[in-house]
Amino acid sequence: MLLSGEGSALLSSIGVVVLICVCFLIIILLYLLSIAFIEKENPIEYVKTIGSILLIAITTASSSATFAPHTMIASTKQDIRDYLVNFSIPVGALFCKPFLVPFLFLTSLFMGNIYAVPISMADAISMILLCIIL
C-alpha cells in the first residue's frame, strides 16, 4: 500500500493491527501465568533466563540459530531434564514449521507481484523448496 501511494488505506486497518497486538499480549500473559501457577516459577526470572534466546529468535526468525543456546539454557539454567529438552524443543520447532511455509511462500508471491516479477512454475517450485528449508 505504501509503495502504490495509497498509504492512507493503511490507517483504516489500524483497528485490526491493534486487535492482533492485544490478542498477542493476552497470549503472552496466559503463558506467564501458566509459568507462575503451573510450574511454580517466577515469570520475571524465566524471562531473564530465556530473554536472550527470544531476542535471537525474533531478530533472525531462525530456529537453527536458537536451537543450541535454547537447549543449553533449558538444561543448565532451568534444570529441565536432558531427555525432555532434546525431545520437546525439536518437536516444538517441527510443529511450527508447517504454518510458516505457506506464510513465507505467500509473502514471496506478494512481493513478486509488487515488483512485477514474472514467476514461472519452476520459480514457484524453487520458492516452495526454499521456504521449506527456511
List the main descriptive attributes of the protein structure presented here.
flat, 134 residues, single chain, mainly alpha
Secondary structure layout:
Layout: H1 8-12, H2 14-37, H3 43-60, H4 63-76, H5 82-114, H6 121-133
Helix pairs in contact: 3-4, 4-5, 5-6
Protein architecture, described:
By secondary structure, this protein is an all-alpha fold. The protein is 80% helix and 0% strand. Among the domains are: 40 residues; 38 residues. It is built from six helices and no strands. The two termini are 26 Å apart. The model has no long low-confidence stretch (mean pLDDT 76).
Summarize it.
By secondary structure, the protein is mostly helical. 80% of the residues lie in helices and 0% in strands.
Number of beta strands: 0
Regions with pLDDT < 50 over 5+ consecutive residues?
none
Please tell me the overall pLDDT: 76
Distance between the termini: 26 Å
What's the gyration radius in Å?
Answer: 19 Å
Spell the H/E element sequence: HHHHHH
Describe the global form. flat
Question: Counting H and I runs of at least 4 residues, what is the number of helices?
Answer: 6
Q: Quickly give the structural class.
A: mainly alpha
Helix content: over 70%
